Amino acid sequence: MQPLALDATLTDLQRYVADMETERGFTSHSVHEQTWRLMEEAGELARAVRKNNGHRSQDGDLVGSIDEELADILIFACSIANRLDINLTQAIRDKEAFNETRTWH
């Protein structure tokens, strides 16, 4: 599998994740399973942020780096989107168009 390009778009990333899952045999994992894995990664991100802010982790916890945990979250988000045929670039455009109509103050 080719490495992800330095200038990869979100669409490129979705395609990369699809190819990676095929290569590694992860295509049978359901949306439900991938969502649980995404939530686990969110917990790992919280632990990494906590550690980065000087708080101790629980004894024996393996704590990854913030960038690694954010990458895992993005990979699982792409995985879920791919299973549901969601174009994340378009989803972000649509969501931001809606957000522009909201009052934030």
TrEMBL record:
Residues 36-93 form the NTP pyrophosphohydrolase MazG-like domain. Pfam families: MazG. InterPro entries: MazG-like_dom (IPR004518), MazG-related_YvdC (IPR011411). This is Pyrophosphohydrolase. It comes from Frankia nepalensis.
